[in-house]
Every structure is written in structure tokens, then in C-alpha cells.
Write a structure and sequence with these properties.
Blueprint lengths: L1 E9 L5 E8 L2 H10 L2 E8 L18 H16 L4 H10 L4 H15 L4 H6 L7 H13 L2 H58 L5 H15 L1 H20 L1 H13 L4 H21 L4 H12 L2 H15 L4 H5 L8 H12 L2 H56 L5 H7 L1
Antiparallel strand pairs: 1-2, 1-3
Helix pairs in contact: 2-3, 2-7, 3-4, 6-7, 7-8, 7-11, 7-16, 8-9, 9-10, 10-11, 11-12, 11-16, 12-13, 15-16
């Protein structure tokens, strides 16, 4: 989520108001304002006032685990027959996060003032996303809020499990890469200069690859502040590029086609699509609205474009299964199971089965990746260390092989 400041006009009174809002983009921020009967006049990225462009307030996130626990508790309390305001107040008392509790207390006050639960949740898009709000709205409309909240909690738990497995698969390569960086840095800063001193004392010329590494070492030591600034600039430059539309699209396409991890990401997105879409359809959300919400929830612009294209065709009268068939990034099982669900009238159940299947596939893929990545990363680490050792020790061996005067001082005197 990004922070935006806005100037808008109330549709009823025409009064101009200013404020701030969190959304994924300026377009999304405009949509949120229009849902509140505000006509956007100006929307600009907020000046966060954070260090080096980091919004420090955004670091205080409500954890997904806290939201899941709250949702399940609220579902249980409503199922027990408590009025919605009393159920909310009771669930809030169980929350440990002060930030989350403060938000929920404001929601309780909003509901007591006559606002629907979905609208109250929708006032905090950084905590309760579009999928969450839409499911709650559908549950309120159908009188099955307790069932909807239970389904929502289950969906969030599944998403958390998938995210945890993917992070687990990525941790090992990142740690190995960090070790490689530390080893190379140690060699460049502490070991290589000593080899240079030895060569200078013997009046010998360094090999070319050792000279290159020496140049990097000397630059890093002499201009460490510039190296630090360049590193920070690169990090934040990449961060800004990734947040731009073109950068986001490039990164999301890379995820889908990445060696080794590409298949994993495709299964993750298919599980997320099926789980979200299944929950929305089963809760009674209209098909086009469900597709729009699911496109945002998948969190990949390439997959979102496919879903948006499918929604346009569905609006024109085509079946969802046929609109998803043949796409490179939509795994074949998805449209096949959707077709069965459409024919049998059990689309929600079929999508839940698809989600479960791909969640199990993600679990198995992560286990398989672990057996492949570990030896591959060890080979990479060994290769990088060997190169550094070769660049440092081989020159020493060449000196020994070429013969070193037993009295090094005589070499210096002769020179």
C-alpha cells in the first residue's frame, strides 16, 4: 500500500475536503474516494517524511495472523447468537496489538453509529483489503455473516501458509548469497592488500586478475563512503523502479518465467486465484465483481490482466472456463475444473478443490526445491570462494615456483 494525499469534493454538498488515503495506486485511491461519495480533484503521493523515502508509519502493520484470529473469533461469537456490536466489542478485547485494537474500536463506534460492518471495515483498506470487505458485505446481505467470516478466516490461513512456504524456499539462497558477499568482502579488504605488500617487497608484477581485484579493494577501502552511497542509491533506485508500473510488470513477468522458481510462483498464483474466487462465488458475490476483486488479490499484474480480459469476455456472454483456456500462465487444471463447476452448478466447490490441489502442489514443490537448491548453492559458494583464493594464493605459488631469493632484502636492494 502507498500513501496519497487528496483534494476531493463531496457529491451531496459540494464541499471541498482534503485528507490522506492508502491504496495500491492513484487509480485505486480514486476508486476508494468515489466509493465514499467523494469526487477526486487531486491525488498525489504523500510526503512520507520518513528516512530516505521510507514511510516509518507503514512499518507499523497489522499482522495477518492477528487479523485471522480476530476474524475467526468474530465468526464464533456471531454464530453463538451475540449481536454484531457486542460480538465486535468482545473480539476487540482479545486483541493484543494496540494499533489493531485502536482501529477496531473505531470500527465498533462506526457500527454503533449505523454504518454497516463492511463499510466500517472499508475505511481501513491497509488492514482490510477489497476481498475482505466484499466478502463481509456479501455475508451481511445474505444473512450468513458467521459462515462468511469463517470461510474468510480459512482463506487467510491458507494464504499465510503458502506465503510462509515460499519464504522458506527463498531464505536458504539469500543466506548463502549473504555468506558469499561477506567472504568476498573479507578477502578484498583484509587479505588481498597483504599479498600486494609481498609482491611490492619482491619487485614482482601482479597477475592481471589479481590486479583487477586489487583495484576494487583499494577503491572500496579508500572511498568506503562513496561505496556506501552507491549501494544505497542502487537499493532505493531498484525499489522505486519496482514500484513503478513498468518495473512491477517486468518483475511479475520474471517471477512467472524464473528458472527453478517460475513453476512455484505459477502454482502460488493459481492457488490464490482459486481460493479467493471460490470464497467470493460461494458467498454470493456476482461473477464480474468476484473477478475484479480476485484480479487485485492475486497480486501479479500479468495474471490480473488475464483475469480482467476474462471478465470482459464473461460480460459479453462467454463462460469463464473458455475465457481462461489457452493462456500461458493459467495452468490447464484451472479452466478444466471451472468447466465442471459451471456444468454442475458447483463452481465454488470446484474452485476450493483447485485451491487445495495447488496448495498441496506448492508444499511438494518447496520440498523438491530444497533438495535442488542446497547442493546448487554450495557449488556456487565453493566456486566463488575458489576464485577468490585462486586470485590470492596462486600468485604466491607462482613466486615459490619461480624461486624466491632466500634473502628478500637483497631483491629490494638490487631493485
Amino acid at each position: 500500500m502507498l500513501d496519497f494525499t487528496y483534494t476531493a469534493r463531496e457529491q451531496a454538498s459540494g464541499q471541498v475536503i482534503k485528507g490522506s488515503i492508502q491504496a495500491d495506486s492513484e487509480v485505486a485511491a480514486a476508486d476508494l474516494l468515489m466509493q465514499k461519495d467523494l469526487v477526486p480533484v487531486k491525488i498525489v503521493p504523500a510526503n512520507t517524511g520518513g528516512f530516505l523515502g521510507i514511510n516509518l508509519a507503514s512499518l507499523e502493520r497489522v499482522s495477518a495472523k492477528e487479523r485471522v484470529i480476530f476474524t475467526r473469533q468474530l465468526s464464533t461469537l456471531i454464530k453463538a447468537g451475540l449481536p454484531i456490536t457486542q460480538a465486535l466489542a468482545t473480539a476487540v478485547d482479545q486483541v493484543t496489538s494496540e494499533k489493531f485494537k485502536d482501529i477496531l474500536q473505531k470500527i465498533v463506534a462506526s457500527v454503533e453509529g449505523g454504518t454497516t460492518l463492511a463499510e466500517s471495515f472499508g475505511q481501513y483498506p491497509a488492514v482490510f483489503n477489497k476481498t475482505y470487505v466484499s466478502l463481509v458485505k456479501a455475508g451481511e446481505s445474505s444473512g450468513t455473516l458467521d459462515v462468511t467470516l469463517e470461510r474468510l478466516a480459512t482463506q487467510q490461513e491458507k494464504e499465510l501458509a503458502i506465503a510462509s512456504k515460499v519464504r522458506g524456499a527463498l531464505i536458504y539462497p539469500i543466506l548463502v548469497f549473504a555468506v558469499i558477499v561477506v567472504v568476498i568482502g573479507f578477502m578484498l579488504v583484509y587479505v588481498l592488500p597483504q599479498i600486494t605488500t609481498l609482491y611490492d617487497s619482491l619487485g614482482k608484477e601482479l597477475p592481471i586478475y589479481t590486479s583487477i581485484l586489487l583495484g576494487v579493494s583499494q577503491f572500496t577501502i579508500k572511498y568506503w563512503w562513496l561505496t556506501l552511497l552507491m549501494t544505497i542509491a542502487v537499493v532505493f533506485g531498484i525499489r522505486a523502479w519496482v514500484q513503478s508500473p513498468s518495473g512491477r510488470k517486468t518483475l511479475d513477468r520474471f517471477k512467472l518465467n524464473a528458472p527453478i522458481f517460475g513453476k512455484l510462483f505459477r502454482k502460488v498464483y493459481m492457488a490464490r486465484f482459486a481460493r479467493t474466487m471460490g470464497s467470493l462465488v460461494a458467498s454470493g458475490v456476482p461473477m464480474l465483481d468476484a473477478l475484479d476483486i480476485t484480479g487485485e488479490a492475486v497480486n501479479n499484474v500479468i495474471i490480473k490482466d488475464i483475469i480482467d480480459g476474462a471478465a470482459k469476455q464473461v460480460k459479453g456472454g462467454k463462460a469463464l472456463s473458455s475465457t481462461l483456456t489457452g493462456h500461458k500462465y493459467v495452468l490447464p487444471l484451472v479452466p478444466q475444473m471451472i468447466r465442471i463447476g459451471e456444468d454442475s452448478g458447483t463452481l465454488g466447490d470446484m474452485l476450493d478443490k483447485v485451491a487445495t490441489f495447488f496448495e498441496d502442489e506448492v508444499d511438494q514443490t518447496v520440498k523438491n526445491l530444497a533438495t535442488i537448491i542446497e547442493p546448487a548453492m554450495m557449488i556456487l559458494l565453493g566456486g566463488m570462494v575458489f576464485f577468490m583464493i585462486a586470485a590470492i594464493l596462486l600468485p604466491v605459488y607462482s613466486l615459490v615456483g619461480g624461486g624466491i631469493d632466500a634473502n628478500p632484502s637483497s631483491s629490494v636492494q638490487t631493485r
